Amino acid sequence: MKKLPNKKWLTSKETKSLLKISDCKLMHLRLEGNQFFKEVGK
Predict the structure, then answer these.
(1) Is the pTM of this model over 0.85?
(2) Of 3, 4, 11, 17, which residue is least crowded by CB atoms under 10 Å?
(3) How many beta carbons lie within 10 A of that of residue 15, not counting itself?
(4) Cα separation of 20 and 5, whole Å?
(5) In sequence order, which residues have a C-beta less than 8 Å from that of residue 20 and are 6 or more positions away?
(6) For 1-42, what is each residue's pLDDT tens digit?
(7) Are 40 and 12 in contact (CB under 8 A)?
């Protein structure tokens, strides 16, 4: 398993890489409310 970065938030890319999931799966997890997330920088 990869080591987690030493920071408070993960990017979508980092999350997908660590969990080995697709963009679509990450979106579905967010829509189902299975994880906490915060949108930054738009």
Answers:
(1) no
(2) 3
(3) 15
(4) 16
(5) none
(6) 566 657 778 888 988 998 899 999 999 988 888 766 666 665
(7) no
